[in-house]
Amino acid sequence: MHHSEKKIIKEIHINPDNCNGCRACEIACAAFHAKPKYSSFNPSRARIRMVINEINDEWVAIRSGSFSKTECKGRSRYIINGKEYSECSFCSTICPDRTIFKEPDSDLPLKCDMCGEDPEQIPMCVQICSRQALTYSYREDQVHMPEEKIGQDLETGLGALTEKYGLEKIKDAVGRMVKKNRF
Ligand code: SF4
Ligand code: SF4
Ligand code: SF4
């Protein structure tokens, strides 16, 4: 049995040609998600990270996507206009093979949430980008999914985290974050 519903799809358009690597998007994201809001500006807590390689002229904004408990074995290496990019450059996965997109205290994944549900809310990284390297739009889409899949996403995410870090560590991390008023 399939369930069909209308969903808002939010999109961030990334134009690396316009980017100057200022990293304001990282700061804005980290500040917006700090608890209390705007109380800290630590880019290592950002859900968007600039992949910067000045020698290779590599300035690519990557937003974090799904969590994976294992790194992938087969990888893609892109060569664009004669420039070779490192193999994880364009990947948004929160994966054990990289240090970015993990909360520095707890190591828990930092997934981009598009700055909330409201489609009229322009994501903070887009708002701060003065170069039009990030722009925003949204559209309505019909989404089909098996009924049994509904509600499974959260369970799958928590299950993967528990398997990787152990239940005690997850409970610890959540407890510390609640204490520090991070939720
Ligand atoms: S704010 Fe815009 S110009 Fe600055 S690093 Fe981010 S994407 Fe690039
Ligand atoms: S960052 Fe992405 S491409 Fe690189 S190992 Fe992890 S999943 Fe694979
Ligand atoms: S959309 Fe929001 S949560 Fe996602 S990277 Fe941009 S500022 Fe961060």
Automatic annotation (TrEMBL):
It comes from Desulfotignum phosphitoxidans DSM 13687. This is Ferredoxin. The lineage of its organism: Bacteria, Pseudomonadati, Thermodesulfobacteriota, Desulfobacteria, Desulfobacterales. Residues 10-37 form the 4Fe-4S ferredoxin-type domain. InterPro entries: 4Fe4S_Fe-S-bd (IPR017896). SUPFAM superfamilies: 4Fe-4S ferredoxins. It comes from the Bacteria.
